[in-house]
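FAQ

Q: What does a record look like?
A: Structure on top, sequence underneath. For example:
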């Protein structure tokens, strides 16, 4: 004998309709989020012949999370690392390991002397590292000291 769902007919229709609408809204939200993430993501880049001495001109660490790399044409790139790269922020030199491709791209890694290897997760074009703060002249330093002394005396 089949169960009698007649008394639940209106309730079941509303529950199914609500579930379908909620699922549609959820899918639309995920689609919009994925589209936004794709629009913000920069395209991956590469430096050919990076395994030769003339492929990479300069580099600068971004703490332990990434680094800027400049090619011989003075174009800057930013490499995001898989995790913190211990010793990178204080390294005087690093090695670039491109494996068999001789191209520096998101599949490459860096070697920090006495610390280990650090894998890239992305390698994109960049504007370069932020400018360094200008050093203050002796006169500016003395003026700051004088201002601090007079401020301490007034308190």
């Amino acid at each position: 004998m089949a169960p009698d769902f007649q008394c639940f007919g209106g309730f079941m229709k509303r529950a199914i309709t609500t579930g379908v609408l909620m699922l549609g809204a959820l899918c639309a939200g995920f689609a919009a989020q994925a589209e936004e993430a794709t629009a913000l993501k920069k395209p991956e880049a590469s430096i050919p012949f990076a395994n030769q001495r003339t492929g990479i001109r300069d580099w600068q660490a971004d703490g332990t999370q990434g680094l800027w790399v400049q090619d011989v044409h003075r174009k800057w790139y930013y490499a995001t690392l898989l995790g913190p790269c211990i010793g990178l922020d204080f390294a005087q030199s690093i090695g670039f390991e491109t494996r068999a491709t001789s191209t520096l791209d998101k599949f490459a890694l860096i070697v920090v002397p006495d610390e280990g290897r650090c894998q890239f997760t992305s390698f994109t074009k960049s504007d370069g590292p932020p400018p360094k703060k200008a050093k203050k002249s002796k006169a500016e330093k003395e003026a700051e000291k004088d201002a601090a002394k007079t401020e301490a005396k007034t308190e």
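Q: Is there anything notable about this one?
A: The first strand starts at residue 56 and ends at 62.
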